[in-house]
Design goal:
- The chain has 142 residues and is mainly beta.
- It has one domain.
- The protein is 9% helix and 31% strand.
- Strands 1-7-6-4 form a four-stranded mixed sheet, with no helix packed on it. The chain has a four-stranded antiparallel sheet with strand order 5-8-9-10.
- The longest helix has 7 residues.
- 29% of the residues are buried.
- About 12% of the residues have low confidence.
C-alpha cells in the first residue's frame, strides 16, 4: 500500500485485480503495462476488494491479503495478480492455513483467491468458504 501523498492519511485507491499474464517468452508481466513482475512473488494487500460473500467481506474488511505478483508502476494504484489456486485441493488449502475467497476481478469475472485464515477478523471461521479449487469462473457477481 502506498504511504506517500494521501496514503499517509489512510486514503488509498482500490487495488486492481487481474489474472497473471505471460509475454511471448513465458515471463510474467503486468497485464496493464507489460512490466515484468516475476520478482514480486509474495504476499500482497488488496485495497477494497469486491468480495462476493457479504459476511466474509465484513469479516475481512477493507484489506485482503493474498499471494501472488504485484505491479506498482501505475500512478495511484497497484495491480495484483493472485497465484492461481486451481491446483490446490480444498483439503490442502485448509490444512495449510489458507482459505478461498471469491472476489470479482477487474474483468468482471469472479475467481477464488487464497487468503490466510488468520487474516479473517471473526471467530466463526468455520462459516468461511473453503472452496479453493478456483475452477469455475462466473461473469459478474454471484
Amino acid at each position: 500500500m502506498n504511504r506517500s501523498g494521501l496514503g499517509r492519511y489512510g486514503v488509498s485507491s482500490q487495488t486492481v485485480l487481474r489474472e497473471r499474464t505471460e509475454d511471448d517468452e513465458g515471463y510474467l508481466i503486468c497485464p496493464e503495462c507489460g512490466t515484468p513482475v516475476g520478482n514480486s512473488l509474495g504476499s500482497h494487500e488488496v485495497a477494497r476488494p469486491e468480495i462476493v460473500d457479504d459476511d466474509l467481506a465484513d469479516a475481512i474488511g477493507d484489506v485482503l491479503v493474498t499471494h501472488g505478483w504485484v505491479c506498482d508502476r501505475h500512478p495511484g494504484y497497484e495491480v495484483v495478480m493472485p497465484t492461481p489456486v486451481g491446483s490446490l485441493s480444498v483439503e490442502e488449502a485448509v490444512n495449510s492455513g489458507w482459505v478461498g475467497v471469491r472476489v470479482q476481478f477487474a474483468d468482471g469475472f469472479v475467481r477464488t483467491v487464497a487468503t490466510p485464515e488468520k487474516e479473517i477478523r471473526r471467530g466463526e471461521v468455520d462459516d468461511v468458504s473453503t472452496d479453493a479449487r478456483g475452477e469455475s469462473e462466473e461473469a459478474g457477481s454471484a
